[in-house]
């Protein structure tokens, strides 16, 4: 493998990793702060992609569609937390798994009823529809660079919010001692609603920005969910920093194993996970 | 669905009053039981829907051929999960006593169904799954296929590639039966004519992160690329191939599934792709014009190959019933009638080989303005070699 090809594949891996981070960050945030294991997280990614498709078709603008879809996802998150998740606090993970698996079926059925089963496509918005020629053979699509940049920005935003703001301080406090935060007069329920809705919105935003790059199809949520869990387990449940590092590791390992070890590439990210767990049983940055 | 049944009844009784039906009315009491085993949820749901729509359309349109017999549908969702296939097939066979069982889409499911249904009383009609074994080593008198064998659509593309002057080709697919069989069929004819497969890429199913592989193809710089992908994966592959700027540098060839039921989602990225398949949207024959019009007005979307194959399964049933005057109690006679039939399909007329696979023309198609337009016949009356079949 010569150096240009190596750099290319590294770009592919980093780009895939950044997108995985965006999807996985919401999952790990909700688990870390609220102790809720949300298996329907992948469904939220799917919902984002389908909403984006629907609103691009009705409004004709990707930007407008993205904003509307993100707001709907946020409201959906609030609704799910207020009606369903609220019953799960202080219950065990098995109950959470049962409820959120049920949600996967509900969202898949809704998707099928509302939007049918045909594979759908969203066009790349015109203002991002360029490519940068890298060699005479390959060019890199501007849109993918834009998505990578967006993932980095969202990551930095999350980091600053959690570590530098009052809200972040409450989130961190709620993480370590819920009862104490309540005694200090903070409305923990509102905080939880906000965090859960943010987690849903992050998954949906990942779905929205992915829509022009992938095919919008039934079952797309389950596919990303598994990769997300691998990322979160490697990084340590509940750690945003861990999700970032884990996602980049998974992206890069998956990319290079696809090319260099095609026969075993489908196992490589799980082998990576196993190795990490052998060395750090709770993941790299478990809180 | 309910309306369809009503419509069918109305049509049948209208025909009856018009005196079009023969004297088989004592049989009319017993409906013909048609089991459907297709995926209505999951990755292949769109293919299952199209197959079911086509099947019902054919049986509704040809109600006059059923000699007064109603059709009772028994529908099961396979979810394209091979491990569920034997159980579902057994329930249609033993519990429901289905006369015909139509399915599946997925080749893995076909293997599971075939195990249960081979040499049994029910007639199995496969409206999609192309696994070579189904009409090869596992062929049976009661198993028919109205679709294709994996070998059929891909084999003619080898010659097309040679005629275009391509010498070095990279092949790529998912690492599963249908994908590997398609690549082998292309390779068989391409290397026989002196072509060289410089690299074969097998992607773990159902992974769709294709970028690293496409980057690798660009570094290899072959004369052309031949792929097998279908459904959502086909959309993703074509978009990735185009996004990395390869579509106007290295010609993309494929088995026709690459651009079936996916063109709208692929958009401009699919323009110019060459594929070989036993159907094309703009085939100029009466059956196709009528079919496309009826399908679009019944279901509100354009027909694709999966709809055609389901439609032809319906035509096959209707014709066999018509030949036998509505009496299908003698299974040997039923199989003989089916075997001898010529199906006036939207793809053009086809007959059945000894192994019960269609003997059919394979067309070379090009994507022009979001439609698969036919360029020429790549292979006329092509029969699957049915390696390993003892019929």
From TrEMBL, chain A:
<keyword id="KW-0029">Amino-acid transport</keyword>
<protein>
    <submittedName>
        <fullName>Branched-chain amino acid ABC transporter permease</fullName>
    </submittedName>
</protein>
<feature type="transmembrane region" description="Helical">
    <location>
        <begin position="142"/>
        <end position="162"/>
    </location>
</feature>
<feature type="transmembrane region" description="Helical">
    <location>
        <begin position="97"/>
        <end position="115"/>
    </location>
</feature>
<dbReference type="Pfam" id="PF02653">
    <property type="entry name" value="BPD_transp_2"/>
</dbReference>
<keyword id="KW-0813">Transport</keyword>
<dbReference type="InterPro" id="IPR001851">
    <property type="entry name" value="ABC_transp_permease"/>
</dbReference>
<feature type="transmembrane region" description="Helical">
    <location>
        <begin position="224"/>
        <end position="252"/>
    </location>
</feature>
<feature type="transmembrane region" description="Helical">
    <location>
        <begin position="16"/>
        <end position="40"/>
    </location>
</feature>
<keyword id="KW-0472">Membrane</keyword>
<dbReference type="InterPro" id="IPR052157">
    <property type="entry name" value="BCAA_transport_permease"/>
</dbReference>
<keyword id="KW-1003">Cell membrane</keyword>
<feature type="transmembrane region" description="Helical">
    <location>
        <begin position="52"/>
        <end position="76"/>
    </location>
</feature>
<feature type="transmembrane region" description="Helical">
    <location>
        <begin position="191"/>
        <end position="212"/>
    </location>
</feature>
<comment type="similarity">
    <text>Belongs to the binding-protein-dependent transport system permease family. LivHM subfamily.</text>
</comment>
<keyword id="KW-0812">Transmembrane</keyword>
<feature type="transmembrane region" description="Helical">
    <location>
        <begin position="259"/>
        <end position="279"/>
    </location>
</feature>
<keyword id="KW-1133">Transmembrane helix</keyword>
UniProtKB/TrEMBL annotation, chain B:
<feature type="domain" description="Leucine-binding protein">
    <location>
        <begin position="31"/>
        <end position="370"/>
    </location>
</feature>
<dbReference type="InterPro" id="IPR028082">
    <property type="entry name" value="Peripla_BP_I"/>
</dbReference>
<dbReference type="Pfam" id="PF13458">
    <property type="entry name" value="Peripla_BP_6"/>
</dbReference>
<dbReference type="InterPro" id="IPR028081">
    <property type="entry name" value="Leu-bd"/>
</dbReference>
<comment type="similarity">
    <text>Belongs to the leucine-binding protein family.</text>
</comment>
<protein>
    <submittedName>
        <fullName>ABC transporter substrate-binding protein</fullName>
    </submittedName>
</protein>
<dbReference type="InterPro" id="IPR051010">
    <property type="entry name" value="BCAA_transport"/>
</dbReference>
<keyword id="KW-0732">Signal</keyword>
<feature type="signal peptide">
    <location>
        <begin position="1"/>
        <end position="28"/>
    </location>
</feature>
């Amino acid at each position: 493998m010569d150096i240009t090809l190596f750099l290319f594949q590294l770009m592919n891996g980093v780009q895939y990793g950044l997108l995985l981070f965006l999807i996985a960050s919401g999952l790990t945030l909700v688990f870390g702060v609220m102790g809720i294991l949300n298996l329907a997280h992948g469904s939220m990614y799917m919902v984002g992609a389908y909403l984006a498709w629907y609103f691009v078709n009705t409004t004709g603008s990707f930007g407008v569609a993205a904003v509307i879809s993100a707001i709907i996802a946020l409201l959906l998150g609030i609704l799910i937390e207020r009606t369903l998740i609220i019953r799960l606090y202080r219950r065990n993970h098995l109950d959470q798994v049962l409820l959120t698996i049920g949600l996967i079926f509900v969202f898949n059925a809704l998707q099928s009823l509302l939007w049918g089963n045909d594979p759908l496509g969203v066009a790349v918005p015109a203002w991002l529809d360029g490519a940068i020629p890298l060699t005479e053979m390959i060019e890199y699509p501007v849109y993918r660079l834009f998505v990578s940049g967006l993932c980095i920005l969202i990551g930095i935003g999350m980091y600053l919010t959690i570590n530098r703001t009052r809200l972040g301080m409450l989130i961190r406090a709620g993480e370590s001692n819920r009862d104490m935060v309540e005694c200090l007069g903070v409305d923990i329920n509102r905080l939880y609603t906000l965090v859960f809705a943010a987690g849903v919105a992050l998954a949906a935003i990942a779905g929205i920005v992915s829509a022009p790059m992938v095919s919008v199809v039934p079952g797309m949520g389950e596919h990303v969910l598994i990769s997300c869990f691998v990322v979160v387990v490697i990084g340590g449940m509940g750690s945003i920093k861990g999700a970032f590092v884990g996602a980049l590791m998974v992206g890069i390992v998956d990319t290079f194993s696809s090319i260099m070890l095609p026969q075993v590439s489908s196992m490589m990210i799980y082998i990576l996970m196993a190795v990490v767990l052998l060395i750090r049983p709770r993941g790299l940055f478990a809180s | 669905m309910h309306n369809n049944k009503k419509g069918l009844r109305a049509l049948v009784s209208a025909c009856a009053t018009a005196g079009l039906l023969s004297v088989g009315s004592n049989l009319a009491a017993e409906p013909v039981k048609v089991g459907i085993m297709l995926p209505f949820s999951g990755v292949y749901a769109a293919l299952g829907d199209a197959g079911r729509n086509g099947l019902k359309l054919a049986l509704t349109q040809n109600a006059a051929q059923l000699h007064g017999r109603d059709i009772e549908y028994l529908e099961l969702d396979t979810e394209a999960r091979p491990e569920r296939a034997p159980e579902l097939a057994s329930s249609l066979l033993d519990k429901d006593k289905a006369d015909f069982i139509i399915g599946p889409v997925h080749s893995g499911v076909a293997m599971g169904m075939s195990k249960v249904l081979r040499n049994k009383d029910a007639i199995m009609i496969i409206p999609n799954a192309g696994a070579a074994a189904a009409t090869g080593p596992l062929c049976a008198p009661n198993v028919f296929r109205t679709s294709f064998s994996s070998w059929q659509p891909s084999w003619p593309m080898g010659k097309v590639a040679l005629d275009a002057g391509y010498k070095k080709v990279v092949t790529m697919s998912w690492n599963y039966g249908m994908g590997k069989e398609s690549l082998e069929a292309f390779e068989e004819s391409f290397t026989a004519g002196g072509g060289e497969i410089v690299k074969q890429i097998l992607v773990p199913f159902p992974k769709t992160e294709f970028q690293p592989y496409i980057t690798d193809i660009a570094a290899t710089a072959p004369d052309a690329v031949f792929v097998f992908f279908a459904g959502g994966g086909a959309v993703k592959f074509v978009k990735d191939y185009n996004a990395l700027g390869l579509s106007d540098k290295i010609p993309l060839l494929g088995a026709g599934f690459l651009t079936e039921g996916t063109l709208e989602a692929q958009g401009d990225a699919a323009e110019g792709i060459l594929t070989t398949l036993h159907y094309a949207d703009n085939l100029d024959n009466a059956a196709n014009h009528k079919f496309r019009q009826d399908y679009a007005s019944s279901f509100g979307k354009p027909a694709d190959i999966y709809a055609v194959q389901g439609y032809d399964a319906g035509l096959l049933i209707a014709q066999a019933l018509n030949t036998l005057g509505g009496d299908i109690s003698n299974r040997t006679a039923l199989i003989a009638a089916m075997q001898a039939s010529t199906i006036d399909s939207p793809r053009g007329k086809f007959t059945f080989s000894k192994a019960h696979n269609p003997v059919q023309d394979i067309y070379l198609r090009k994507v022009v303005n979001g439609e698969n337009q036919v360029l020429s016949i790549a292979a006329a009356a092509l029969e699957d070699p049915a390696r390993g079949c003892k019929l």
